[in-house]
Amino acid sequence: METNQNQNQREDFSVLVLASDLGIDGRSLLSQSERRAREEEEEWHECVEEDFSDLEALQAFRLQGSDRSGSRILRIVGKYFPATIISGERLKRYVFHKLRTELPEGPFCILYMHSTVHSEDNNPGMSILRWVYEELPSDYKERLQVVYFLHPGLRSRLAIATLGRLFLSGSVYWKIKYVSRLQYLWDDIKKGQVEIPEFVQEHDVVLEHRPLTDYGIEPDPLRLTGVPSVDYTFGRYEDKWSAGTREYM
């Protein structure tokens, strides 16, 4: 009796061996959100491996200190960003690399310094910024608390108020906080937490003596309040990177 039961168990058990070219890709069994998360993980890993030393040397993006709410600060100096010689795709990979390696967890904020930015030279365009933001993993979007926009100027405010609704995601559009002067920035960020470039401080002094420049009433011969561009920079002047980097540095 026992022998017959063992024989039946052996007959019921079988092993199916597939050739390697007939194997099933496990990703096809994942849900759409799971596949997306895996693709993001693979893309972020590739960004970590890429060499961004040339962009690091420009100091346009730096993690420095925390605001008064305890959020880490990603300082972005617009003037340092060579928009005409870096593609939107490489900008995205660099931002991913920066966040993945230096800001893996916890809330963070962005301090964007628009001082003396020229839209044709330093601004990647709102379309690019929206695309980069939308490509971020959802947890980073949730962890972004506020975007401090220093020295926006009237035309920048109007451009963002109108075009921003079209080109910026609603979740980031409502996080923008305009800061017209450095003295107001200290209400949210304690002095000494973030390095303020000398030209930003000088620009702040100019605006103190010419306050109507912010509102477009006083002339703006130095183009201190330029309008952010909405153009794409994909592939523009990519071959000029080496020479352009030396010029900006």
UniProtKB/TrEMBL annotation:
Instruction: Return the protein name.
Output: Ganglioside-induced differentiation-associated protein 2-like
Q: Where is the signal peptide?
A: none
Q: Which SMART domains match?
A: SEC14
Please state every residue range assigned to the domain named CRAL-TRIO. Answer: 54-205
PANTHER family linked to this entry: OS01G0948300 PROTEIN
Q: Which CDD domains does the entry link to?
A: SEC14
